[in-house]
Amino acid sequence: MTIRVLLADDQELVRSGFSLILSMEDDMEVVGQAGNGQEAIALTEQTQPDVILMDVQMPVMDGIEATARIRQEYPETSVLILTTFDREDYLFAALEAGASGFLLKTSDADDLVDAIRKVASGLALLSPEMTLPLIARFVQSTSRGKENKQGSGPELSPEDAFALSSLTPREKETLELLAGGMTNAEIASTLFLGAATVKTHVSNILAKTHSRDRVGAVIFAHRVGLVS
What we know:
- This protein is α/β, with parallel strands linked by helices and 228 residues long.
- The chain has two domains: 3-125, Rossmann fold (3-Layer(aba) Sandwich); 132-223, Response regulator (Rossmann fold), CATH 3.40.50.
- The protein contains eleven helices and five strands.
- Helix 2 (37-47) packs parallel to helix 3 (63-73), helix 3 runs parallel beside helix 4 and helix 8 (169-179) crosses helix 11.
- The mean pLDDT is 86.
């Protein structure tokens, strides 16, 4: 299957460089180039890309706002945020907007191509080493003031409480390991399960917690107190 990619960056030289890199991949096709967020939204409607490489700082409309609108209007399109700046506020805003990944423009070409494939397949790009501590901090910052009066843990919304109760003990174990940064193969080895079984558990977790991808599941795990 060919992955349809839309490039959104206000620097033409950057777009040209990305386009050249992706043109060398047999399974990728650049279907459009946008110079700002507003153009990215219009081109998303026209070209129906699988993945958008989205810059953050752009004129007219920035990449964060464009990501939020695209994810709302075109939920089948995944967004991979690309930025020059390694800033936590950008990462947090990107996650809130619905981005599936966050990558620095200084990354290697192979990392970029691998990230696009992961995002296109429904996985999250964010590496555990770089982002899990940030995700934990993100959840903590959005959960301040929600501790119950006894201070025994986060006060769950009815939706989160129902989702948590719907998970089987094995699915909770799987989610805890997933939130700890393990791959499916590592989870399978730790729990002495087959790869297909772990894949089923992860799919069930995403469905039951209403998580779009693994990043969403990690955020859920922190929010409900499965991991700290």
